[in-house]
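=== RUN LOG ===
request id: a7f3
mode: sequence -> structure
chains: 1
length: 367
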Amino acid sequence: MARNIFVSYSHADNERQGGRVLQVVRALVDEYSVLEGEEIDTFIDHEAIAWGDRWREQIDSALTDSPFLIAMISPNFIRSAECRREVLSFVSQTGQNASKLLLPILFVDVEDLSVDSEDELRALIARTQYFDWRDLRLKSAESPEYMNAINILAERLRKAKRDVAASQLKEEIKDEAELADDLTEVLSRINDQLGPWLGAVDFASLSLAQWRAISDERLGRVARLRAQRSSAGAILSVYRSFGLSVLPIAKERLSQVRTYSRLTITLNPDVVQAVSFIDKNPEFADALQVLRSGVEQAVENIRGGEYAPDGVGPGKDVAKYSKHLDETMKLMEEGDTMLEEANRIVKNWADRLGITDPDEPLIPGRV
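=== RESULT ===
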């Protein structure tokens, strides 16, 4: 059966490169179609209606029909909240098969693209055997080097299709004892990681409490100085003190968010595999009780954490008064991006385990 191919890329890159980003994608899809002898539906991010719904629909239907995701990697891609969300959402849905179905193409050099990166998206891309297009993007689409590279990419997709189909067939012919052994192995890995992961989830309330205590005291002092018509220098001095006090909290919070993100993405393939197994073999449902309890606890921690109505961070109206406050705001924003990415993965787990309603956000007004 024909697979769909979804594409995630930076619109700015494509426009500034005269359409050459999508030129690669279309050449690859054409080559794949010729080699496979079948037409392929291609979804260019959100040009198609219900782009995300369509891929989830395919993933949930049958493993052998799961779509490919081609990600055109660049600095703009890495900075794009939408692109990051598309890749991590795809990975959260495909689980163990993500490395086969995700094809990152490195279009432009990206700093810190390594398995040791503190940004888990960069580390994920580095682990997924990306295809290096940095030199090829400067060559003509008619050049032998370009055309040969397109063929190599198409053959990689064909191999991935065969590998996933073989994996599915192997699963289908296993007897009950083999299936039980597989589930035991997956659950053992989950249980080994669950404790550290839950510890990483439960950092939010401390950061929020520290922030509010300092914020209330410093901003209260500013309000009193303004009411007393104190000098601008006196007010700026309080803002500088405010920045020096909250910057260490922002740095520590970002470090904790990175740990939470890394552990969530690491845990994801096993969780998806375990839940998918139970969907097909409901007689083993009781085996997921520890996982279910852990995800329920995580959902409670996330809902009771940093997403208070007034948020966390100094805000632009305050940050402008101090370079330390400005840096704090940037660190908070970076942390919020990673936090929401990880929370989306947890939301997928909770939905599939029946803990949350798929139609309701995990955090009202957010994820």
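=== NOTES ===
DSSP finds 14 helices and five strands in the chain.
The CA atoms of residues 85 and 288 lie 27 Å apart.
=== END ===
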